[in-house]
Design goal:
This protein is an alpha/beta fold. It folds into 2 domains: about 80 residues, Rossmann fold (3-Layer(aba) Sandwich); about 60 residues, no CATH class. Helices cover about 45% and strands about 15% of the residues. It contains 8 helices and 7 strands; from the N terminus they run βαβαβαβαβαβααβα. The chain has a 7-stranded parallel beta sheet with strand order 4-3-2-1-5-6-7, sandwiched between helices. Helix 1 packs parallel to helix 2. The longest helix is centred in the first third of the chain and has 16 residues. It starts with a strand and ends in a 10-residue tail after the last helix.
C-alpha cells in the first residue's frame, strides 16, 4: 500500500511527537508499505520521510511550487511531484494513496484528513482513513466526532470509518483489513 500521511510541518513541543513519527515511518517500511506525503523537509512530515528513507522504503512527495521555492522540499525522495496549489497537492496525494493516516498536526492536517474522510463517506473513494492517536493527541477530536453523532450530524457507520489506534502496527493492520461502509446516498 501507499499510505498518505498527514502531519505537522512543525515537530510539536514534546519529543514523543518526533519519536512517534519516526516509529510510524519505520513500521510502515518494515511492513512493506510506501509513504505519500506533502513533500516537505520540515516538522513531523520530514521526520516520517527521513525514517522511511533510512529504513529503505519509498517516499513520494507532493509539494506546491510556492513551498518548493522557499526551499522546503525534501531532497532524496523516491519521487517529488511539484504542483501549482494546495488543492492540486491534496488531489494528487489522494490519487497516489491507498490509505490516509493523520499523525499529530495543526489545521492543515485536520483539513487533509477530514477531506479524505468526507470523500470516503460520499463514495469518491473506498480507502481507509485513520488517526494515529499519539499520547491521546486526538482524544478531544474523538469527543467532537461523538458529539456529531449524538447531535444527528453523523451516522454511526461513518463515525466508525475512522480507524483510531495508538500503535502503528495495530493501525496498519486495520488499514490492511479495512472494509468500507455502504456509501452515503447510494
Amino acid at each position: 500500500m501507499k499510505i498518505a500521511v498527514f502531519c505537522g510541518s512543525s515537530p510539536g513541543n514534546k519529543p514523543y511527537f518526533i519519536e512517534a513519527a519516526e516509529h510510524f515511518g519505520q513500521t510502515m517500511t518494515r511492513l512493506g508499505h510506501d509513504l505519500v506525503f506533502g513533500g516537505g523537509n520540515v516538522g513531523l512530515m520530514g521526520c516520517v520521510a527521513d525514517a522511511v528513507l533510512a529504513s529503505g522504503g519509498k517516499a513520494y512527495g507532493v509539494i506546491p511550487e510556492s513551498l518548493r521555492d522557499r526551499e522546503l522540499a525534501h531532497q532524496g525522495l523516491t519521487r517529488l511531484d511539484v504542483v501549482k496549489s494546495m488543492h492540486e497537492r491534496k488531489a494528487r496525494m489522494a490519487d497516489l494513496a491507498d490509505a490516509f493516516v493523520a499523525l499529530p498536526g495543526g489545521p492543515g492536517t485536520m483539513d487533509e484528513i477530514f477531506e479524505a474522510w468526507t470523500w470516503g463517506q460520499l463514495g469518491y473513494h473506498h480507502k481507509p482513513c485513520a488517526l494515529y492517536n499519539v499520547n491521546g493527541y486526538y482524544d478531544e477530536l474523538l469527543s467532537l466526532i461523538g458529539k456529531m453523532f449524538s447531535s444527528g450530524f453523523l451516522k454511526q457507520e461513518y463515525a466508525d470509518m475512522v480507524i483510531v489506534e495508538q500503535e502503528p502496527e495495530a493501525l496498519i493492520a486495520r488499514l490492511e483489513n479495512y472494509q468500507p461502509p455502504i456509501q452515503k446516498w447510494h
